[in-house]
């Protein structure tokens, strides 16, 4: 599997969110909202142009006393990115001064591309990856081929070249209008 670490998105600089005294004790807890914003700067290791929040991997954030509980739903099962995502999230929280973190993996309901946010879809498009089309549940019901728009020129005259693109989570497409190949983020 090829990882794309060549993106400028990866330069998330995190400021400590909370004040600590000399013993490193937390003086106050950052708001859940501030932590969502912080995690929205953590890039997905496979598609660094989108954050783990954009992808819908981070399901819930909650303070349990002094411990932050982060609920995650991994994307494609068998995608080795999951442990990288967990590490990246833990590192970002530690860098922000949140040391007491518990990661909770929630496997049901299973992650679906429907959870990718609108801003995540727009970022994919700008990066040259066609975002998943429509609703995953509907697709599997109808068994239809998606009508994928070319992220370069917007044409719907596109054809699937290979079921696997630069990573297993993507398919390789080609545009018949501008002739450019592009990755399509597979709908699941
Ligand atoms: Zn095109």
TrEMBL record:
Domain PaaD zinc beta ribbon: 136-186
Residue stretches making up the MIP18 family-like domain: 33-95
InterPro entries on file: Fe-S_Maturation_MIP18, FSCA_dom_sf, MIP18-like, PaaD-like, Zn_ribbon_PaaD
Protein's gene: paaJ
Top-rank taxon: Bacteria
Any Pfam family the entry gives: Zn_ribbon_PaaD
Name of the protein this chain belongs to: Phenylacetate-CoA oxygenase subunit PaaJ
Region (Disordered): 1-22
SUPFAM superfamilies in the record: Fe-S cluster assembly (FSCA) domain-like
